[in-house]
Design brief:
Length: 82
Amino acid sequence: MSMDGMPLQNASPALVLVGSLKNQGSAVTSIGSESKPKKKICCACPDTKKLRDECIVEHGEEACTKWIEAHRQCLRAEGFNV
């Protein structure tokens, strides 16, 4: 469940991504910049990573492309080249 009380499994990846970027503050300012990531990739984007991982465990990778892509977008916003 998200901080505003909405179930995350029904949220679009873009909404989850926007919500996670709001919580991360510095990520919003680094979008589009070519700076080196400030975190290790394993520690970046914990919200989208958790949703992606839970979906894959429950439904398989093929059914979770929207969560996988949302996590990739978040990682790119953090400065990772994925």
